[in-house]
Write a structure and sequence with these properties.
Order of helices and strands: HEHEHEHH
Number of strands: 3
Largest sheet: 3 strands, parallel
Structural class: mainly alpha
Distance between the termini: 29 Å
Shape: globular
Strand order of the largest sheet: 1-2-3
CATH architecture: 3-Layer(aba) Sandwich
């Protein structure tokens, strides 16, 4: 994560008292989960804050979300990057996924 800190488009921060301002300033929420279980809190938070999401199939597992309607889903690194790029370039899509 710290390797991304030098990128102008990326903000790396530590723990915050309230996530709301961070979600409000985000154009999208990226959830590249490749393994694991449990509740997908980050996706649920993003949707509650009306932010579009790009995730993997594993990341969105169990949420009942429909890819293309509630979020974008891609599993290979190339496809995942393409969906992130698509979301950043397509304002209409961002607004549609944000609800």
């Amino acid at each position: 994560m710290c390797a991304l800190a030098g990128e102008p488009e990326v903000t790396v921060t530590g723990p915050v008292a309230d996530v709301t301002p961070w979600y409000e300033s985000a154009h999208a929420v990226i959830v590249p989960v490749r393994a694991g279980g449990g509740t997908r809190i980050k996706i649920l938070e993003a949707l509650a804050h009306r932010r579009p999401v790009v995730s993997t199939t594993v990341g969105a597992e169990g949420l009942g979300a429909t890819p293309g309607r509630h979020l974008l889903v891609a599993d290979s690194p190339v496809d995942f990057a393409a969906e992130c790029d698509r979301l950043m370039r397509d304002r209409t899509l961002r607004h549609a996924l944000a609800g």
